[in-house]
Amino acid sequence: MSPQHRSFLSSLATNGVIVALVGMLLFALNDTMGKWLVATYSVGQVVLLRSVAALIVLAPFVWWLGWRPLVRVERPKMQVARAVISTTETMFFYAAVFYLPLADVMTYWLAAPIYIAAVSPFLLGEQVGWRRWTAIAVGFLGVVIALQPSPAMFQSPAAAVSIIGTLFFAFLLISGRSLRNTPDTVLVFWQNVMGVVIGGAFAAFDWVAPSARDLVLLGLLGVVAMTAHALINRSLKLTDASVVAPLQYSLLFWAIVFGFLFFGDIPSVPMMIGAVLIVASGLFIFFRETQLKKRDRVLPAIPE
């Protein structure tokens, strides 16, 4: 490969990293706006208006794609289940940030890849060796430290909402593995349609007329989320997933910064220790799986 080609590929990778980091920043902004809004409006209303705004932004792409790919999808039952899981996970996330600091909730949600690694031998038939089982155990220890379990904690709605929400997020990621051939536009379209349906059903019981400012913010939730998704998808075209995926942990940094700036939240010491263990575990699992996938191209799969 000539020096010019190496320089060009390096430039693409660098641009991919920048695009991905901007996408993660927008996701963090989206979460911050969501926390701000659920203090005034019900979770159902926030999800409803967020989904409507996202569908408006998505409309030109749907028009370009055509209606056939939207209705002729692979594994229709799984598509419906994924849309329901996605909406439910979003509602649990907004409910969690109503009770807890943004960084705390983000720490719990970043543990989802650890849950996936733990259940993959049973649900996906994947082999997990002792190294990854050790990382999984470390990750669960981080979750326990962050949660600070006590009898009072198990009576707290915040703990229950967070734990259930992270499990839904893990199932959402697992379902994505079985729908790899579905275009992103189709997946996002049906996720937001389900958001309108379920969010609207809940919003009907607790509707608050939004002010003009808040209506703009509610609309921006969908716009910012759609833009963030587009940037992440673009970054994956500019560089490898092995480069982009670890950047998701920058969400925790932004959650700490925005939580302090907008809500005055300061993470506790146990939360920070738990977050470090969760991030370290998640990164090890990711890089180990990447290493094994590369090796399996030439060698039989051997769990390690």
Quick structural summary:
The protein has helices spanning 3-38, 43-65, 68-71, 76-99, 102-109, 112-123, 130-147, 157-177, 184-203, 212-238, 241-244, 250-263, 269-295. It is globular, with a radius of gyration of 20 Å. It is built from 13 helices and no strands.
Descriptive report:
The chain has 304 residues and is an all-alpha fold. Helices cover 78% and strands 0% of the residues. It has 13 helices and no strands. Helix 2 packs across helix 10 (212-238), helix 6 crosses helix 8 (157-177) and helix 7 (130-147) packs antiparallel against helix 13. The two termini are 34 Å apart. Residues 1-5, 7-13 and 298-304 have low confidence and may be disordered.
Q: Give the beta-strand count.
A: 0
Which structural class fits the helix and strand makeup?
Answer: mainly alpha
> Number of DSSP helices?
13
| Strand residues, percent | under 5%
* pLDDT averaged residue by residue: 81
Largest sheet: none
Shape: globular
Low-confidence parts: 1-5, 7-13, 298-304
Percent helix, as a range, is over 70%
Q: Give the termini separation.
A: 34 Å
Q: Radius of gyration from the CA trace?
A: 20 Å
Spell out the helices and strands N to C: HHHHHHHHHHHHH
